[in-house]
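ok here's Lycopene cyclase family protein:
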Amino acid sequence: MSRPPALPAGPSDVLIVGGGAAGLSLAYRLTTTGTTTVTVVEPPDGPTRPPERTWCYWDQGPGDFDEVVTASWSRLRVRGADGSEVTVDPAPLRYRMLRSAPFERWVHARLARSPGAHLLRATADTIRDVPDGAEVRCTAPDGRTLTLRARHVFDSRPLHALPPARTHLLQHFRGWFVRTDDNRFDPEVADLMDFRVPQPRHGLAFGYVLPLAPDRALVEYTEFSRTPLSTEEYEAALGHYGREILKLGAFTVDAAEQGVIPMTDARFPRRAGPAVFRIGAAGGATRPATGYTFAAVQRQSRGIAAALRDGRTAAVPAPHGRRALAMDAVLLRALDTGRIHGPDFFTTLFRRTPPERLLRFLDGATSPLEEWGIGLRTPVGPMLRTALELPFLPRRARPAPRSEEGPR
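and the structure:
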């Protein structure tokens, strides 16, 4: 018989619902400040618990998660549809990869050592505001109903429906962790976009290769389009990419991962009630035009932890600036309408923009002058036409895809 879950002795200052990148990152930041009691509610083992995922980001110098970084790369490459290559060194930045399982173990160990932290395996059912905080009702693995209270609740669970938007694209992918019989990969170079794959009628497609050793890599097929593929279609595309384009020779697939990330100009509310907040992808942390989420999650988590440490009113900082979101809205619409050719657009952007500046731009850390210079390296006419029409387009709602945080 399994032991019933141990409950906190009393209400916590903070209750975090969900143990993915956003929830665990916030828990880590709060235990680092040491001024707040925190309870993390994670799904128990079983079908409701998400499979292992991959998160990537770029950073410089020593980082908070160096102990659990799976791999990193000093050079990045984009391959055009014609086979041309653009290889860049974004120093002092490096591209880093985290796997969710070691990250979870690392944060869980920190929670176990922190006297003010508590980890509970249960399924969160409802969240509601109550006097002086919020209440979360959960179901324990043994079927019991648990009621938890906290001054602040931060909910990282995926949304059931996306907010209304003018453009609804999806970044959807499937990746294989492959092992080749011969050395086929350069462990210092990550292929961010390889456009040599066949392009869909709508949107764009590319390969993505993160080498882990000379004979091991994550090899992925990704599309930006309106609807996901079937698993069989992803498998066929991956097989073609690995065998016919990368020419990997004999290889085995050790594991696979698959996901869908919304790419939309929707406005994501970061507050669901007086004491209830949304974080992570549910709180708008996903960069609309790229799908990258992990770096914005860290900005949100640091901001929340600093506010609570300093005794300020709890709030979730905006993960992306207004200029960045406006530019992303134009790019998404231009891609969705076919006014720009995606492979040419991204290949030219990497070829003509200093790499460190481009990565800062993708992180929303560039100045207006730098952004103006980057904008001049894009198809000005189609982008301008798209920018002028956006204010007149209606925003429409659509169901959220079944989203799994993936390599972005």
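+1. The CA atoms of residues 20 and 239 lie 30 Å apart.
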